[in-house]
Write a structure and sequence with these properties.
With about 400 residues, the protein is of the alpha+beta class. It has 12 helices and 5 strands. The protein folds into 3 domains: about 120 residues, no CATH class; about 90 residues, Single alpha-helices involved in coiled-coils or other helix-helix interfaces, CATH 1.20.5; about 120 residues, Histidine kinase-like ATPase, C-terminal domain (Heat Shock Protein 90, 2-Layer Sandwich). Strands 1-2-3-5-4 form a 5-stranded mixed beta sheet. Strand 1, helix 10 and strand 2 form a beta-alpha-beta unit. Helix 5 packs parallel to helix 7, helix 6 runs antiparallel to helix 7 and helix 9 runs parallel beside helix 10. The chain is elongated.
């Protein structure tokens, strides 16, 4: 179920240029238009130069290198034309941040270099009255601002790279799981096709043989013909039952491709399916359900599914499991506990891929949550996860 609170954020992510243009317009209003009356010596020059400084901010993410070059050119023009240091120079710091965050590495390095050179030139141009009381402090202040903007941009770049890596990892895990499911379905359908062939071929062979024998026996021994007809009827009924069973499995397998993505509401059905397979598992739900985006809901379902699968594989016979959903004020907390031998089995008799716990942890981190898993005191294994409600970026 789509959360209405996610729609504005989705629109913003789908139209980044419109957001950047609106941001540039706001900067122009506050840094160019409002202070223009303070430049009594050159209002027209301040308005023109300030506008050209701010306009490239609209392309700071779409074309950061070109936008940065435009800001550098206008900044040099300002040193020549404007007798005043403009408030619109805040756009220079914003562009250095954008270069560090979105541009190639060489452009980010060029941006901080140009910013530091610009700090010296601006200090010489506007504050060179006294080398000790004006030039040096101003140059240091502007230089520190340039370095701070560049450092913040680098932090943003690191965050974007981390999110991209987590998203790629989650997609690869989803693709791997889907491929394994398709391979298992293909193998199962091949087995069913072989069984269906055996049922049809064997049953028809029996029916044909009985029919031929009954036809010849009917001329001399009516009771033998009756026995042949009864055998034909029994064989036909059994074949029909087997075919219905096999076709039912095929229909269920085909329908899975069109099923919606599971969410938290599907966890009770998942627990029921696991309970029907023989595991004694209880579901505990605490608190009132809160709106949660589709991504964290799918992550919650997959974490519970993977945890219960591990219990079935490793906990051993006569084990019990508990699934607890706690709707906290700020996050949905999940716990899957068992009292079996899963702690040692998961570490000693691993199936070799080692991706279960890692995949669950990465799902949780992708949605700004956390996950902990490990042996429980007194035996058994436990998985604990928390997924914040406001997990969307």
């Amino acid at each position: 179920m789509e959360n209405p609170l996610d729609r504005p954020g989705d629109r913003v992510r789908r139209h980044p240029f419109a957001v950047d243009a609106a941001f540039a317009g706001a900067v122009w209003f506050f840094a160019v238009l409002l202070p223009v009356d303070a430049y009594w010596q050159s209002r027209g020059t301040a308005l023109l130069v300030g506008t050209f400084l701010v306009v490239p901010l609209a392309w700071r993410r779409r074309a950061p290198v070109a936008a940065g070059a435009a800001v550098v050119a206008v900044g040099l023009l300002e040193l020549v034309l404007s007798p005043d240091f403009l408030a619109a120079n805040v756009a220079v710091l914003m562009m250095i941040y954008a270069l560090a965050a979105y541009a190639p590495r060489w452009a980010a390095s060029a941006g901080i270099g140009a910013g530091l050179v610009g700090a010296l030139l601006a200090s010489l141009r506007y504050w060179n009255y006294d080398m000790t009381t004006s030039f040096v402090p101003v140059a240091l202040a502007i230089g520190v601002s340039v370095v701070a903007a560049w450092a913040l941009g680098n932090l943003r770049r690191a965050r974007l790279e981390q999110v991209a890596a987590l998203e790629e990892r989650a997609q690869l895990l989803e693709l791997e799981r889907d491929q394994e499911m398709r391979l298992a379905a293909t193998t199962e359908r091949a087995r069913i096709a072989r069984e269906l062939h055996d049922v049809v071929a064997h049953s028809l062979s029996v029916v044909i043989a009985q029919a031929d024998g009954g036809r010849y026996a009917g001329r001399t021994d009516p009771s033998a013909a009756t026995d042949a007809l009864e055998a034909i009827a029994a064989t036909g009924r059994q074949a029909l039952t087997d075919m219905r069973s096999l076709l039912g499995v095929l229909r269920e397998g085909g329908g899975e491709e069109y099923a919606p993505q599971p969410d938290v509401a599907a966890i009770p059905a998942l627990v029921e399916d696991v309970r029907a397979s023989g595991l004694d598992v209880d579901l505990i739900v605490e608190g009132e359900p809160q709106p949660l985006p589709a991504g964290p809901q799918l992550a919650a379902y997959r974490i519970v599914q993977e945890s219960l699968t591990n219990v079935l594989k490793h906990a051993g016979p006569a084990s019990r499991a508990w699934v607890r959903l706690q709707w906290r004020p700020d996050a949905l907390e999940l716990s899957v506990l068992d009292d079996g031998r899963g702690a040692s089995a998961a570490m000693v008799s691993s199936d070799g891929d080692g991706q279960g716990l890692r995949g669950m942890a990465e799902r949780a981190r992708l949605h700004r949550g956390r996950l902990e898993a490990g042996p429980r005191h007194g035996g058994g294994f436990g998985v604990h996860a928390a997924l914040p409600y406001g997990a969307g970026r």
